User: What shape does this take?
Amino acid sequence: MSRVVEHYGRAKGSLAGGVSSSTRLNRALGHPLYLAKGEGCRVWDLDGREYYDLCCSHGATLLGHGDPRITAAVQQALAAGACCSYENEVQAELAELLCQTIPSFERVRFTGSGTEATMHTIRLARAFTGRTKLLKIEGNFHGYHDQVMYSIGAPADKLGSESAPNAWPASSGMTPGLDKELILVPYDRTDLLVEAIRKHGHELAAVICEPVFYNAGCIIPTKEFMQAMRDETRRAGVLLIYDEIQSAFRMAPGGAQEYFGITPDLSTVGKAVGGGYPLSVFGGRADVMQRLMPDGDCQHSGTYNGHPVIVAAALAALKIYRSPGFYEHIRQTAEHLYGGMNNIFAERGIPGKVRGLGARFGIYMGVEGEPHSYRDAVKHNRKLMLEFIAASIARGVYFHDYGGGACHHGFCAAMTPADVDAALGRIDEAVQTLKV
Ligand SMILES: Cc1ncc(COP(=O)(O)O)c(C=O)c1O
Assistant: This one.
């Protein structure tokens, strides 16, 4: 028996489900991937099998595993005693650099996870506006707290109509009634978005969205949709929140807001911001952020917020993202990898297509036309997707399956053109085993 499978059995005896996080089970494999080590764009499992990592820690390791520049920064912070739950100089240094990098950031606060970041941002929006409702885009994912755990991963037959999407709860045990605080609109439907903001503006604290919909693979909205969202929220005095936990640093140092040239009132950034260490950030307009205690009356606190080891890792990562040529390398690698995969699918007669922006991408199996919304992405050929992922993993390319519709994958900056060619070779071998 492989050590990975054996370890799964052992882990299940003490860790619920054998995992620290539910989505770590890869259904294409039938078990989680248990790693022994990682270096750059590759990881090795407990059996010593090597994989090109096209999951990249769900987006956290944009620089790859064990980047020596991040490791050095972490070691320096450790050597200084890692004094947690105190302020030191690096927190303000990181905050300053973030404010120079992310267009909407005038003031920031640190949290551990993306879930906490969106939770605090939504509370702050309610405190500032004195309103309670939230307009959420159908299928957009904002973490695991009860207020936003609706209408994500919903089966196609549970969606309801486009003009009145169902608030499908994505977990049992959620506080009853929170769905009453949500207005749902499908992605990229400017007409329905404008109608909803005009109708509900007076009771909306905020509109929250994924400015690039990576949680349905990679759907880039029209500029018209994003501009209407900005104009209508401003007109109605509703705060606009970009959840850039996934999209931050993915295609530009300033994330999707820099890419679209549209500045929201508040934003959350996560994953890549910590350079592989657990940091998320929320921030935005100074007048809104001033409502946070101790200056204001809205609570945001946490023992581990701004932990000096994590902040040191983030500062090192941010300096790398801001360095010349970083995004040119990401752009070239993206073109090489996504173009190569699309060619393989076309040449081998597989009804798949890759859509990506920057270092993250979606694979759409059996989806006709261009995907514009969660509704399009959920109608994919899941069986073929799981077969593709299993065949790729068997040949040394790791894709993660999160369950549900088309999901996001990604590469890291440590990937060289030779690595992309090698990964494409393995993917081509995998694709030739698929039966369509
Ligand atoms: C857009 C978005 N928001 C929030 C989250 C939640 O972040 P975390 O898993 O760090 O709590 C995620 C995680 O995938 C995400 O993609």
Observations:
- The two ends are 31 Å apart (CA to CA).
- The mean pLDDT is 97.
- Residues 326-347 form the longest helix (22 residues).
- The chain has two domains: 3-66+324-431, 68-321.
